[in-house]
Write a structure and sequence with these properties.
Order of helices and strands: HHHH
Helix content: over 70%
Largest sheet: none
Strand content: under 5%
Shape: elongated
Radius of gyration: 21 Å
Number of domains: 1
Length: 87
């Protein structure tokens, strides 16, 4: 059972580094360790592959989003409406 916990911890760390790598925040050593882990772990290779696909889709997606100022105005309006509703 202890071996299983070590494997899960190793995979958890590998997935975390995979996420960091996606945002260009992983160090060279972390990337090397990740690649070694991926050689031996099919589940983490799948996770990494899916992560890369998701990143690619997000980069090419034509998604509109609210700017920070618009979000702040909406938040203030909602807060005010909630206060008025409570009174």
């Amino acid at each position: 059972m202890n071996t299983q916990m070590n494997i899960n911890k190793a995979c958890e760390k590998a997935n975390h580094v995979c996420d960091k790598s996606q945002y260009k925040e992983a160090s060279l050593l972390e990337k090397i360790k990740l690649n070694v882990h991926l050689i031996f772990c099919k589940a983490c290779r799948k996770y990494s592959s899916n992560n890369q696909k998701l990143t690619k889709k997000m980069r090419t997606a034509k998604v509109d989003y609210m700017h920070k100022q618009e979000k702040e105005v909406l938040k203030q309006n909602l807060t005010q409406a909630i206060k008025e509703q409570q009174n």
